[in-house]
Amino acid sequence: MKEPVSVRLRRLAVEAFKFLTVGGLGYIVDVGLSNVLAYGLGPIPALLEGSPIKSKIISTVLAMIVVWIGNRLWTYGDRTTQSNMRGVVLFVAVNFAGMIISVIPLGVTWYLLDMRDQLTYNISTNIVGIGLATLFRFYAYRTWVFKDEAPDAEVVVPLEEPRTVPDDRG
């Protein structure tokens, strides 16, 4: 039997909350590290000054590790990936696509529009890019990576053969 819409919406809301909480932690790692690498922090010099895409790729990979652990153990801990290797491969593929989505706005502002200040960098990649990538990842995680294998409807199999009723018109 199909569960009521209110129950499905509540489950989706809990899932979205957990996903966004884990993603928020990953976001802090991603944004913080990408800024430190590209622009430095106080006395710490920029390690990759003039290389914003390299900075973003490194920070995204480290954030991806944090997010994998959080989503695997908490957000989607009750779901199966059928095998650890399958889950990791799908997760990496989805995050690679998400990384491309988040870097596209940065590439446009940095290389096409020649807007290279820290504010534009952060708006293009850490707000617009990550926002678009987050929508994609939420859909992809729940659809492919951490797929819910629970059936939507109960299947009823009869245990007896149906009886035939003799025709009275005989």
Kindly summarize this structure in a few lines:
This protein has 170 residues and is mainly alpha-helical. Helix content is 68%, strand content 0%.
Task: Please tell me about this protein's structure.
- This protein has helices spanning 5-39, 52-75, 84-112, 118-145.
- The mean pLDDT is 86.
- It has 170 residues and is mostly helical.
- α1 runs antiparallel to α2 and α2 (52-75) runs antiparallel to α3 (84-112).
- Helix content is 68%, strand content 0%.
- The two termini are 41 Å apart.
- The chain has one domain (5-145).
- Assembly of the depicted chains: single chain
Residue stretches low in confidence (pLDDT < 50, at least 5 long) are none
**Into which percentage range does the β-strand content fall?**
under 5%
In DSSP terms, counting alpha (H) and pi (I) runs of 4 or more, how many helices?
Answer: 4
Radius of gyration: 24 Å
Total E-strand runs: 0
**SSE order, one letter for each helix or strand:** HHHH
Largest sheet: none
Mean pLDDT: 86
Q: How many distinct domains?
A: 1
Secondary structure: helix percent: 55-70%
How would you sum up the global shape?
A: elongated
Which structural category do the helix and sheet elements fall into?
Answer: mainly alpha
Distance between the termini: 41 Å
Features:
170 residues; 68% helix; single chain; elongated
Secondary structure: elements and pairs:
Blueprint: H1 5-39, H2 52-75, H3 84-112, H4 118-145
